[in-house]
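Archive entry. Fields below.
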Amino acid sequence: MPDSSSDGFNFGALPTLGPGADFFDLLKAGGYHFPGQVVAEVSSGQGSAFTPTEGTTILALRYDDGVLIAGDRRATAGNAVIYDRADKVLPIDDHSVMAISGSPAMAYEIARILEHSFQYHRRRQLTEMSIEAKLRRLSILIRDNLPMAIQGIGAVIPIFAIYDSRDEAGKIFFYDALGAQFEVTDFTTTGSGSPAIRGVMYHLNRWGQTRFSDLPREEAIGLSLRLLFTASEYDSATGRYERSADVFPTVKTVTADGISNVDANDLRALHARFIDEG
Amino acid sequence: MMLDEPYRFAEAVSNRRDYIEDQLRGGSPVVGLEYGEGLLLVTMGRGQKKLYETYDRIAMGSVGHPTDIEKLRQAAVDLASVVGFNYSDSDVTLQQIVHFGLGPAVKASFDDIIRSPYIARILLAELDGCEGSLFYTVDYDGSFATHESYAAIGGSLEADRTMQQMLKSDHSVQSGLPASLSAALRGWAAGRYVGLQKESAIEDNGVPSGEITRILKEAMEDDLEVEAIVLDRNSNAKSKYRTLPTEETQAAIDALIG
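PREDICTED_STRUCTURE:
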């Protein structure tokens, strides 16, 4: 049968993948090379001038209605600020969000593969991928990215938040660079600013007035703004709100109703209430 | 070798057509309509799914052998998904899926005289593509055609023609969903009517309106279920594909059979 598409995609030869067809395998069968597997030939320690871009502080916590996931907007390379409008909280499907610290290049690629994998599964298998399988797909991609992580230029350490409709609860997972997956009960934070706020989060959740899981939505958003602000106080790689640029952190919530993006007007009001006046 | 002789080749192709057309004749039609808020696909069946999401703004329905349909459906999803990833979601077009994918694949299998052909006729719908909303039909021999406003495939070209005539006079693209659902079901019944006739008994005078009600009643008595999906322009979700709930489709059919 004819090779029927200009990007070398052989329509006639399909379907060859069988019932367990996976989008990542389909891509690779079509000649796609996952960049995470590239191992540079230069040996390390030779003083390469290349400094990779990195995303910084992200956090997630369970509040009364679901999960909140937030990140500052700064991307840095060494001491240089590369970008102050980076979006590090990426929706993957209707009920799952991935927040990224580390290499945005690899993280965006992983998020893209993941998003397409989930929707491909739904369309091809005529059923939604299970939560366990979604977590596993992300784990495999992070593991496949190990060569990049070891070379110190492309590590991706994401937080994955998903609403589980069977348990009627939002769930938070984080990963290490090898792809090990850990579920947290209350909160997590990663990225360069996270050491400055991890202890604060523990303290507030344990001895504060309200446990995170009992916080109403607005309080939870206000808390996340304060935490990111705190991180930016002690970590130069974490950005904060600047009046001249008018760019707020990204804050999203994941509930039974799906993903909700907290828009700039709401963030402006909450920023005034929790940071300027608070 | 039989195929060395041109006459034998033509005869083989003709036999192949007869064989496939026999297999398709009784198939449950699929009707596609443009309406006020998007596109609607409707068919009836016994529980097995016949309408599918191909991509964010593209849906597919089919008449034919379930396994053949399944292969073509999966191939269409594969093509759309790879293009959507390598380029962008808005670069996935129905034209591409049909011209580069389904058309050549179905034709190649039809032309390969020593292998079994795809026994399938396909209807695809694209919401708000580069040239507006559009339907494509792909026949069992790989020939394809575009349609605006409405399209239908049944078990034969006669069934298609009868349904198209009916939809042309019965349907307006400004209609709301309930009216469109009703028009689509009447169109389906017209196609079904032709499919149930003996080959010689087909007339070009359309279908008497009493027959439409009778066909729909019989379909309900035979435990057929309505399957209807929309590509909903007003949906906030990335994918515009949505299955209509049974209450909505049942209300439409109850209103028709009284």
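CURATOR_NOTE: Residues 27 and 155 of chain B are 5 Å apart (CA to CA).
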